[in-house]
């Protein structure tokens, strides 16, 4: 392949615009060195320039001297990052104090529910619901009436606030089962009665032939090894690498850009790609870089009613970067048992690629392999946690931990034991030298603070799950001990615990840096950076267009006046206009953080929906308010809005959101057919709820419709919601 040019491409995004420049504009210029330089003690005493190599700089290696680096004085940005992470302990302490409070109450006796009951509605006539348009007339042959099969008052000792963490568990609720029974006749090819046994396989589509693995090299003769590697030019591998570090590595900051671009890449280009672990990592980076480019600017995989798909680049059988990925996975066997950080990185990168191609089982298997590889690394070489790469090691740990938690809670996939290493590993601080591109990308997207905030939110979610699940299995997740003992199943205690945990979640929102905060009731607003989000004088009122897919729905003739102007919008429900462009996938980073916040809030308050569905006569005012909070938390998650939904291949762990959108669509439908939930919607959810709910249904239906041709699990989801909502055609 020859030697790389003496100068190299190093394009940085300063303005909003395309993800990266095209190869034709990839002008070569001198690689910039590291910023935030820190000389070793020897070079500092000699007052000479230090090349900052670790563990020994060039001077100390040459003269065989001891090489020590001082801990850098944290900058303002560093202090902000450290403050975010230090709040973990404070949040944990408050959760532990909740344990004491609730246990004390359980010893003194059950806490009685609110004395102010929620005004109940009598079960309305089914025909009147059909006439009002609240229920699809096609379902009138099988009326949905909770009085037939569900108890209206819980037996003594039975938990009325049933908590489940996953959508497939929620589908087992009696109210949901009744709904499914009423639509089974419209789904001749779907057996809804087997959900309790085969829920996860249905949700992931693993029973469908199209869910089988990616094409291998042997089925693609035109892309065999010699052909692929012979086409790797310096310009292409630079372009793919730059694209990877400007996208995937911002979500998963597990690789060192400076080391890869300045050392690994030139070395491999000169010597060629062999079976070394560095070659495998590089090929995975190239594959993900191609996904980044095609996933934003490639051709849509299909078009529906004139609307281009948000899945771009390649096809289901041949996604972007497949030839490069096949080259990487043909080498992975040589590195399977190596106890190194690079081994962890290989599995994590492979997991990211499978996720971009919509293969959830492969995504999980590679994530679990990365977690096990990390445990092998730290067990066999604990010195890595005090090495120059210690912070990179910690970032790899938390990346794996965040994904494991999501997979365990939503799908019940077993944990690997990684969570037991939390205290040993510690928290990342993003210390160490960074190249200028890293500095610029962090200035414009705050990816380091987004990652740190995700860690805190993950820890909160684990604590919430541990507290609410009240089962020995919850102890697998580690974190905070459950505040429930054997006597704490009383409704008052469960209600109190949810309310206290909701306050902890609100504290998380309050502790975010100002440039990551947003207006609670406006998920699509810009972050509060240089202007006051709540000051009407600094913003021009903005409105969110209604999704064209829901334009057939009747709109209210007028809306009440809002006292303060709406903040300017970063995300919109208008899916037909050209999407806005943001540098360094800022929109996806922001959308992920907010959507996971709303998911946590929705999960936390979902037990109130269970009670309203199954024990309406026992619902108190506090219960009704909790159900309203759950319904409001369902609305307009930014990841489903434009521009983020227009780049679905770039959204990490996408099937996690797909399943939750399906579950929300089921609950929103029930909230229009169950009298008590209808009353809660109309009286406690706010003036804009009905309009926002219609927009939300439009967004989530569009998400499922868009993914069904390329994702087997989503195809199953689509068949079910199409029957629930009475949709015709594709």
UniProtKB/TrEMBL annotation:
One of its GO terms (biological process) is DNA-templated transcription. Keywords: Coiled coil, Membrane, Metal-binding, Nucleus, Transmembrane, Transmembrane helix. InterPro entries: EcdB-like_regulator, XnlR_reg_dom, Zn2-C6_fun-type_DNA-bd_sf, Zn2Cys6_DnaBD. Residues 547-560 have a biased composition (Low complexity). Pfam families: Fungal_trans (PF04082), Zn_clus (PF00172). Residues 39-69 form the Zn(2)-C6 fungal-type domain. Residues 1-25, 531-563 are annotated as: Disordered. Gene3D superfamilies: Zn(2)-C6 fungal-type DNA-binding domain. SMART domains: GAL4 (SM00066). PANTHER family: ZN(II)2CYS6 TRANSCRIPTION FACTOR (EUROFUNG), ZN(II)2CYS6 TRANSCRIPTION FACTOR (EUROFUNG)-RELATED-RELATED. This is Zn(2)-C6 fungal-type domain-containing protein. It comes from Triangularia setosa. The lineage of its organism: Eukaryota, Fungi, Dikarya, Ascomycota, Pezizomycotina.
């Amino acid at each position: 392949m020859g030697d790389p040019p003496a100068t190299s491409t190093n394009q940085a995004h300063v303005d909003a615009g395309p993800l990266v420049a095209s190869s034709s504009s990839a002008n070569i210029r001198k690689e910039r060195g590291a910023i935030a330089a820190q000389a070793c003690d020897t070079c500092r005493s000699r007052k000479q320039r230090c090349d900052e190599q670790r563990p020994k700089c060039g001077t100390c290696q040459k003269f065989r001297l001891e090489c020590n680096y001082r801990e850098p004085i944290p900058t303002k940005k560093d202090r902000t990052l450290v403050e975010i992470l230090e709040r973990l302990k404070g949040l944990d302490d408050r959760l532990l104090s909740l344990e004491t409070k609730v246990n004390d109450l359980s010893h003194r006796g059950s806490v009685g529910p609110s004395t102010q009951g929620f005004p109940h509605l009598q079960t309305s006539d089914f025909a009147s619901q059909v006439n009002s348009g609240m229920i699809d007339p096609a379902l009138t042959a099988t009326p949905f009436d909770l009085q037939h099969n569900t108890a209206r008052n819980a037996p003594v000792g039975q938990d009325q606030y049933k908590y489940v963490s996953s959508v497939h568990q929620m589908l087992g609720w009696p109210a949901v089962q009744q709904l499914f029974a009423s639509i089974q006749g419209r789904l001749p090819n779907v057996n809804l009665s087997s959900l309790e046994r085969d829920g996860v396989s249905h949700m992931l589509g693993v029973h469908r032939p199209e869910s089988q693995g990616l094409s291998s090299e042997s089925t693609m003769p035109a892309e065999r090894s010699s052909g692929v590697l012979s086409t790797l030019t310096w310009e292409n591998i630079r372009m793919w690498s730059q694209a990877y570090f400007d996208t995937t590595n911002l979500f998963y900051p597990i690789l060192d850009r400076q080391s890869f671009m300045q050392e690994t890449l030139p070395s491999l280009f000169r010597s060629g790609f062999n079976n070394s672990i560095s070659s495998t990592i590089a090929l995975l980076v190239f594959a993900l870089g191609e996904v980044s480019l095609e996933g934003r600017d490639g051709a849509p995989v299909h078009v529906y009613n004139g609307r281009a798909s948000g899945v771009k680049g390649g096809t289901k059988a041949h996604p972007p970067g497949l030839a490069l990925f096949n080259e990487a996975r043909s080498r992975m066997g040589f590195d399977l048992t190596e106890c190194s950080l690079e081994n962890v990185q290989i599995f994590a990168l492979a997991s990211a690629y499978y996720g971009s191609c919509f293969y959830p089982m492969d995504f999980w298997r590679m994530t679990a392999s990365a977690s096990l590889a990390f445990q092998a690394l730290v067990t066999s070489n604990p010195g890595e946690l005090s090495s120059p790469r210690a912070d990179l090691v910690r970032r790899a740990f938390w990346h794996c931990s965040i994904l494991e938690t999501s997979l365990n809670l939503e799908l019940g996939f077993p944990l690997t034991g990684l969570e037991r290493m939390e205290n040993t590993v510690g928290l990342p601080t993003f210390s160490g030298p960074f190249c200028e591109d890293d500095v610029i990308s962090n200035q414009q997207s705050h990816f380091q603070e987004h990652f740190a905030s995700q860690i805190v939110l993950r820890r909160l979610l684990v604590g919430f799950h541990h507290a609410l699940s009240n089962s020995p299995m919850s102890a697998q997740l580690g974190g905070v001990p459950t505040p429930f003992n054997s006597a704490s199943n009383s409704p008052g205690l469960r209600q109190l615990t949810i309310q206290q945990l909701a306050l902890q979640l609100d504290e998380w929102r309050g502790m975010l840096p100002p440039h990551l905060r947003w207006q609670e009731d406006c998920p699509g607003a810009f972050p509060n950076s240089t202007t006051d989000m709540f000051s009407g004088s600094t913003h021009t009122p903005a409105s969110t267009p209604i999704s064209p897919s829901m334009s057939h729905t009747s709109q209210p003739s007028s809306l009440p006046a809002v006292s303060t102007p709406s903040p300017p919008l970063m995300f919109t429900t208008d899916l037909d206009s050209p999407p806005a462009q943001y540098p360094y996938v800022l929109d996806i980073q922001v959308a992920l953080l907010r959507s996971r916040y709303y998911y946590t809030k929705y999960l936390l308050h979902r037990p109130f929906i269970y009670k309203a569905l199954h024990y309406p006569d026992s619902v108190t005012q506090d219960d009704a308010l909790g159900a309203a909070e759950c319904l409001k938390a369902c609305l307009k998650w930014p990841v489903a809005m434009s521009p983020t939904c227009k780049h679905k291949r770039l959204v990490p762990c996408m099937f996690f959101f797909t399943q939750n959108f399906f579950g929300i669509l089921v609950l929103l439908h029930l909230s229009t057919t169950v009298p008590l939930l209808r009353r809660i919607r109309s009286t406690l959810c706010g003036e804009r709820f009905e309009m926002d709910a219609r927009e939300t249904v439009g967004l989530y239906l569009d998400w499922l419709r868009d993914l069904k041709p390329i994702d087997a699990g989503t195809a199953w989801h689509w068949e079910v919601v199409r029957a629930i909502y009475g949709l015709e055609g594709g």
